[in-house]
Amino acid sequence: MLLRYLVSNFxxxxxxxxxxxxxxxxxxxxxxxxxxxxxxxxxxxxxxxxLGIESAGFKERLQSATPVKMEGKTVTVGKLGPxxxxxxESGVGRKAAGAAVRDVIDIIQPKWIVSAGFAGGLISELKRxxxxxxxxxxxxxxxxxxxxxxxxxxxIEATQGLASGKLLxxxxxxxxxxxxxQLGEEHGVVAVExxxxxxxxxxxEKDTKMLSVRIISDTVDQPLPKDLEKLMGQKTTSGxxxxxxxxxxNRPGSIKDMWNLNSMANKxxxxxxxxxxxxxxxxxxxxxxxx
Length: 291
Prior knowledge:
CATH class: Alpha Beta
Helix content: 40-55%
Shape: globular
Largest sheet: 5 strands, mixed, barrel
Number of strands: 11
Order of helices and strands: HHEEHEEEHEEEHEHEHEHHHH
CATH superfamily: Nucleoside phosphorylase domain
Mean pLDDT: 78
C-alpha cells in the first residue's frame, strides 16, 4: 500500500512546475504574529528544510497554512488531510539545522521530524528529480546515524525514481564532478547535502523519530556554478537577490546559470512536495523501530 501510494503521488508530479509569487510570501512573513509556545498548534510531523525555495512546493499542499513565530523562528502550520503538519526553514548547514530541530522538539514535541530538501547525486544511477530515502547518514569524519527504513530493496527498486542509500553531510557546497565522484567512492554514500546528520543526531538525543527525504537537484556528472556558494550563504531573500544581482553585474554570462538554477529549483520543489504528500501520512509504516 505504501509504495503504491508513493508511486501514484510521485509520478503525478513529474514535469509540473508552480510559478511562485515572492511578494505574497514576503507579505505573509510580515503579517506573522509572535505566538507563545503554549499557543502553537501541535503538529504531528515537522518537516525541516534549509531554504524557502526547497519548502515552497510542500507549503502549497497544506490546507489553511498559517505562519507563526516560535521564539523568533517562523513555523508554517497547516493540515494535510487529518494530520497537522509543521514546516520549518532552518537555514543552511549543520549548526542552523541542529539548533532549529532542538527548538522544535523542545517546544512542539512532534512525533516525527522529516529532514527534506535538495541533494547532489554522488553515483551515476541517480538522475535529477530522483528521490532518495536515506537509510543512514554520515560525515567525512565518520560520525554516523542509521535510519531504519521499513522498505525492502525490492520495493524501492520497483518504484520508478526512488532510491535508498546513505547520505553524506558536509559543510560546504560540493561543486565539481571530480570531488563528487571521490566522495561517493570514499565514503560509500549516494548523495550529499548539508543538514541531515545534525538533524538525525538531535533526534537520536531527544528520542524523536525521523526520516530523511531528499530530491536530487544535480547529478554526479553535473558541476555547479562557482557563484552558487555565495548565493547560498545569504541569510535572507533580499540578501540572495542582492548577491545574484552582483553576480550578474560582475559576470553577465551567469544570467543563464541563474535562470537554470531557478527553473531546476522550482521543479525539484514541486516533485519533492508530491512525494512528501504521499509519505508523510504513512510515516509509521515507513520507518521501523531501531533494533
